[in-house]
Amino acid sequence: EVISIREKLHETYAEVEEELVEEELEGRKGWKED
Questions:
Q1: Which of 2, 10, 26, 29 fits a 20 to 30 Å CA distance from 20?
Q2: 34, pLDDT greater than 70
Q3: In this predicted structure, what is the pLDDT of residue 13?
Q4: Is the model's pLDDT at 4 over the cut of 90?
Q5: Considering Cα of 25, then 20, then 15, then 2, what sign does the dihedral take?
Q6: Would you give the distance in Å from CA 15 to the centre of its chain?
Q7: How many domains does the chain have?
Q8: What is the Cα–Cα distance from 17 to 24, expressed in whole angstroms?
Q9: Domain range spanning residue 13?
Q10: HEC string of 1-34?
Q11: pTM of the model
Q12: Residue 1 carries which DSSP code?
């Protein structure tokens, strides 16, 4: 059970981190264009 919970948390964290990285890249693109 503990392992499955950890895996679930890891998956969720990875997804959130991916979204944050994409937002960061978009922000940098927009900043360069201005």
A1: 2
A2: no
A3: 94
A4: yes
A5: positive
A6: 5
A7: 1
A8: 10
A9: 1-34
A10: CHHHHHHHHHHHHHHHHHHHHHHHHHHHHHHHHC
A11: 0.52
A12: -
Dihedral of the alpha carbons of 21, 22, 24, 27, in degrees to the nearest 10:
180
Phi, psi dihedral angles at 18 (to 5 degrees): -60, -45
One-letter amino acid of 4: S
More confidently predicted of 1 and 4: 4
8, 19, 28 from 23: Cα distances, Å: 23, 6, 9
Which phi-psi region, left, alpha or beta, contains residue 23 (left: φ > 0; alpha: ψ -120 to 50)?
alpha
pLDDT tens-digit map of 5-29:
999 999 999 999 999 999 999 998 8
